[in-house]
């Protein structure tokens, strides 16, 4: 069965299955790269790349962005501080908040990891036929926008209370 038949998207079951499969495989590939990262955990790699992309943020903001437990994230950031990759400082305008800032070594570690992840993505794309690569990139851009719109929308699933 193909995903599209007569320009109509196939049933949501197969679409959902394909999206979950792509997500799972991509996450597994990323985890393998994180294992080669010079820091102690995949969570720390995600922290580094997020701070490299977003700049200085508060611990609370990072907790929400990464959807991680605050205590877990605090321990992970403490480890990055010990490794000399991150600075935790009082926020200049909110004394209750901690501002997270990458050190020069932290920026370098994040750039190295981004380079590694980008090379991996290029290898994956190179496995597609040459004539399909540009279209695959356009589709990924559109899918990224659609996923972001879904996250920002009011139709998102809300957890059930038990």
Describe the structure.
The chain has a single domain (10-128), classed as Winged helix-like DNA-binding domain superfamily/Winged helix DNA-binding domain (Arc Repressor Mutant, subunit A), CATH 1.10.10. Helix content is 64%, strand content 10%. It is built from six helices and five strands. The N and C termini lie far apart (38 Å).
CATH-scheme architecture: Orthogonal Bundle
**Shape summary:** globular
Compute the average pLDDT. 85
**Helical element count?**
6
CATH superfamily: Winged helix-like DNA-binding domain superfamily/Winged helix DNA-binding domain
Number of domains: 1
CATH names the topology as: Arc Repressor Mutant, subunit A
Work out the helicity level.
55-70%
Outline the biggest β-sheet. 3 strands, antiparallel
Q: Please identify the top-level CATH class.
A: Mainly Alpha
> What structural category characterises the helix and strand content?
mainly alpha
Keywords: DNA-binding, Plasmid, Transcription, Transcription regulation
Pfam families: MarR
Protein name: MarR family winged helix-turn-helix transcriptional regulator
Domain HTH marR-type: 15-145
């Amino acid at each position: 069965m193909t995903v599209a038949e007569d320009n109509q998207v196939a049933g949501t079951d197969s679409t959902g299955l394909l999206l979950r499969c792509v997500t799972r495989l991509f996450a597994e590939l990323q985890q393998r790269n994180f294992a080669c990262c010079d820091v102690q955990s995949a969570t720390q790699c995600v922290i580094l790349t997020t701070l490299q992309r977003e700049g200085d943020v508060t611990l609370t903001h990072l907790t929400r962005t990464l959807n991680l437990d605050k205590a877990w994230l605090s321990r992970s950031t403490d480890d990055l501080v010990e490794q000399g990759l991150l600075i935790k400082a009082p926020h200049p305008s909110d004394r209750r908040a901690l501002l997270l800032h990458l050190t020069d070594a932290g920026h370098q570690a994040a750039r190295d990891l981004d380079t590694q992840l980008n090379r991996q993505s290029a290898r994956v794309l190179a496995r597609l036929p040459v004539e399909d690569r540009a279209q695959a990139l356009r589709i990924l851009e559109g899918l990224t926008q659609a996923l972001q719109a879904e996250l920002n929308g009011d139709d998102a699933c809300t957890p059930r209370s038990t």
